[in-house]
Amino acid sequence: xxxxxxxxxxxxxxxxxxxxxxxxxxxxxxxxxxxxxxxxxxxxxxxxxxxxxxxxxxxxxxxxxxxxxxxxxxxxxxxxxxxxxxxxxxxxxxxxxxxxxxxxxxxxxxxxxxxxxxxxxxxxxxxxxxxxxxxxxxxxxxxxxxxxxxxxxxxxxxxxxxxxxxxxxxxxxxxxxxxxxxxxxxxxxxxxxxxxxxxxxxxxxxxxxxxxxxxxxxxxxxxxxxxxxxxxxxxxxxxxxxxxxxxxxxxxxxxxxxxxxxxxxxxxxxxxxxxxxxxxxxxxxxx
Length: 287
Ligand code: SIN
Ligand code: FE
Fold this sequence. Notes:
Elements: E1 5-7, H1 10-15, H2 20-24, E2 28-31, E3 58-61, E4 66-68, H3 74-98, E5 107-114, E6 145-153, E7 161-166, H4 169-176, H5 185-193, H6 203-217, H7 219-224, E8 227-232, E9 237-241, E10 247-251, E11 255-263, H8 274-282
Parallel strand pairs: 1-2
Antiparallel strand pairs: 2-9, 3-4, 3-5, 5-11, 6-9, 6-11, 7-8, 7-10
Helix pairs in contact: 4-8
Succinic acid binds near residues 114, 118, 135, 242 and 249.
């Protein structure tokens, strides 16, 4: 089955039912017309990129919300920082409203401004996010947490954010799990001791990194696997578990993105997590 796009109407939002079930099943929740207005001053941020060009994105991190990777005058950089802080609050409020089950359990991490055209240059396959993948962070082990993301297309001239979404996680894992190298607790400890990873890489982290790489490297899978094109219009907001939903970003420019973490145990149904799906397929708990 291909990951469904679940459009959430105003009436459905009014009804106040939690959308956790659909989200945990692997849907992309699409909110067609939430309000997130820009001031006249802020409109410059979608007219040209206010980025130093060294990193792919501009972001704020941590309690201090320091801005990284931005360009512009001090006044402009402060306005961009405030815009990102406002987007983080918008994301928090949206999740509190449609996913009340997660209240108090979710933690909000980086917020990014992505002003550049999706990179279609010939780059290393590992960094190429046009290839279908699930998210996994090499230096930042995720352990018993889920990666939840809130995206918003802020393009001013009608350009869509063009994605592909792939088949469900379980079907993908059936194809790739048998090909992955085994986990070594010893090398996981070594990577942490050498500070190559920020914490010990769990067996789950190991499997997800190797799935990410195996998926991106498999040209036949990329071309022939079940998939669908999605065009997110300017002004649309979408929410998904990017560790569960196979996705690739094919095109688009100017987007906001919020990353959040949710403990597996805080899910409405923890058995739907990639952690538990992989454990079931291996027939044992992960180490
Ligand atoms: C990704 O998470 O792979 C990229 C999403 C995007 O840039 O639209
Ligand atoms: Fe991704």
